[in-house]
Write a structure and sequence with these properties.
- The protein is of the alpha+beta class and 130 residues long.
- The chain has one domain.
- It is built from 4 helices and 7 strands.
- Strands 1, 2, 3, 4, 5, 6 and 7 form a 7-stranded mixed sheet that branches.
- The radius of gyration is 15 Å and the shape is globular.
- The two termini are 28 Å apart.
């Protein structure tokens, strides 16, 4: 469900229609008859100064990386080519993300969406509102 939400948000921000039911991999329709724009969503965590995710590879044009436990802007869109070598390792530095992203936003999620073990995000949000 989180992936669908992110996909629809990007669809609105890019002003393009989603071509198929969104999952972790989706595409947005072209605006001028050219090829569709393709995305792959990665869920990651910030751990001991590194961003960790499930190692992978993809031919999609853009990676959308949602970093569960990062404060502030925690969802970035990155051209895949800029981090292609990092994807199979499952680790990337925040510095490389900062040098590579083309778009960033903050997404706050409730504890219903959190993977187990990440309840501290909800607790941090509750504390901020108190």
């Amino acid at each position: 469900m989180l992936e669908s939400s992110i996909a629809y948000l990007l669809s609105m921000e890019w002003g393009r229609e989603i071509k198929s039911p969104p999952t972790s991999s989706f595409s947005l329709a072209s605006s001028n008859g050219s090829k569709d724009v393709t995305f792959y969503i990665i869920q990651a965590t910030l751990d001991q100064g590194l961003i960790r995710f499930v190692p992978m590879s993809t031919s999609k044009e853009f990676i959308v990386m949602f970093i569960w436990n990062k404060e502030g802007d925690n969802c970035v869109t990155i051209p895949t080519a800029k981090i292609q070598d990092d994807l199979p390792t499952g680790v990337i530095t925040p510095k490389k993300i900062a040098e590579s992203f083309i778009h960033k936003i903050r997404i706050d999620v409730s504890s219903d969406f959190l993977p187990s073990g990440n309840d501290f995000i909800y607790q941090r949000q509750a504390k901020d509102k108190a």
